[in-house]
Records
---
Amino acid sequence: MRSFTLSIFATLAFAVFSYAAPMFAGPSPVDAIAARHEGEHTKDTSLEVVLTTAIELITPITAELGCIKAENATVEVIAPIVAKLKIAIGDVICDVKALASLPLERILCTLVGGVLDAVAIAKLLACLLNLVFGACASILAVVAVSVKAQIIPILVEVGCLVGSLLCAVLGLANGLIFDIIKCLLPQIVGCLEVIKMLDIRIIIAVLRL
Ligand SMILES: *[C@@H]1O[C@H](CO)[C@@H](O)[C@H](O)[C@H]1NC(C)=O
């Protein structure tokens, strides 16, 4: 178990370094968001608050993507909505990273005064992954073959951001990685196919798909 956890760490570090870094070459939206967040207080925040807020923010955007039908499944319609989704997820990544400066008991405290455990973290992560990759799957299901080649790179970008978010959360709750992944996998069975189809390597590596 210990060596498994260590090897997950190595995979995480490798995945973040080798896949995420080139994505963010140049002026990255994540850096811009980080700059905006500078000086903001994280006093009343926790991993639960950050991830719950993320789900609330992301739900309407993924719902918009879910409403897209064959007739409006064009780059012009899809790209701006996916751009909103990327900004929202980038924001969440910054919020998660900002938590790292807090003591672990603060990070994992829940609104009802308990401690966020691996099961609860996995549930929140599963919700986020299912929202985003569910939206990706729904777009891929309606998009015309002629447009697919243009849409896929757009979806890959958002998928990679979700991978970075997953790594950021696992990095925070590092003692729980093994349990989180174990609980997470059965809850995201429905989106594994699209993760593999889009070849989101950061997620494939971390979850060993
Ligand atoms: C795409 O078309 C569907 C069906 O007409 C509509 O419900 C949806 O709002 C449209 N979405 C966008 C973003 O234009």
Note: The chain has ten helices and no strands.
---
Amino acid sequence: MIQFDKIGVQSIREMTPYQPGKPVEELERELGIGSAIKLASNENPFGCSGMVKNKCLAEMDKLAFYPDGNAYYLKNALSEFYSLATDQITIGNGSNDILDLLARSFLAAGDEVIFSKYAFLVYPLVAKAVSAVSVVANSLPADHASQPFGHDLSAFYEAISDKTKLIFIANPNNPTGTWVSYQLLENFVKKVPSNIIVVIDEAYFEYVVEPEYQSAIQLIADFPNVVVTRTFSKIYGLAGLRIGYSISHSSIADLLNRVRQPFNSNSIGLAAAQTALTDQKFVEACKERNNNGMQQLREYFDSFSINYIPSVANFIAVEFKERALGIYQQLLQRGIIVRPIANYQLDDFLRITVGSEQQNNRLIDALKEIL
Ligand SMILES: *Cc1c(COP(=O)(O)O)cnc(C)c1O
């Protein structure tokens, strides 16, 4: 038989697939139990707004039809929500889809894309798929006072070359939970040549309570090379329906829409997202409960002198040193899934999603037993 792995495009052959968090059902099958919990993929432990389900049910009658490829209603809802024009919004099959559209729209073979050392693993993947060159900007040191392992925007700036086309900055960042102030971001964007696209990935925007933290959306008016991505997968609790979007200058949205698959997002997801957006009470409640849950986890780690990276998102990277992988496995045995992040070069850490109070207690009890 032909060795198909030899005839695939070289850049694709060199790719390592993204490893998602272990699904709850898989662990339950393996252990023969029925009460596993997943604190591994930064999903919302409180589900989604109660208003969404009825909207999804109503959509069931229309499954034979293609979705609205132009996402008319969702784009209108978002444009009203942000007071922006509808042609500034691009809808993706999750914001991962948007990241891919950005790479395909702006990166040709040999072009350079910059992201930080501990950045979201989807950035190198979408770059590699189009044979672009990933340039890694060093992150802040582990002993940095406020943002250990955080983004170092001066390192990003120094990494810029004639070949740079795209910059990915997650704010807050995954897997570190660190963040960049609006002031620093604005200063950075001012210095970046205006023909380089600066993507600010705000997947965890809604969780942040820091007063110096602000969305980069307001930068777009003055800096049309800035693109902001958002998602319904995190605080809105709709990860399974795959709806994300970008906000950008309309001419960038125009490009993204040329490479976008005509029906990249599904009809139930579009309807659910539109409804979810109207329930900001749910978002506020989740933000508060996440804050309390983060407090709960930090108190436990502090009282047992367990080190962690201070996080403003709905997850926390905890340092278990050489025991990290062992602890991951021992937690699995107890029906708790967390995330090893050795593939982010953080071998000594486990990333733990903040759960409900009850889930956090279960995690803490298990860790007390193990440690
Ligand atoms: C979870 C996450 C996303 C969201 O991905 P979707 O495709 O919208 O589910 C985007 N960026 C980062 C950094 C994330 O952690």
Note: The chain is about 40% helix and 15% strand.
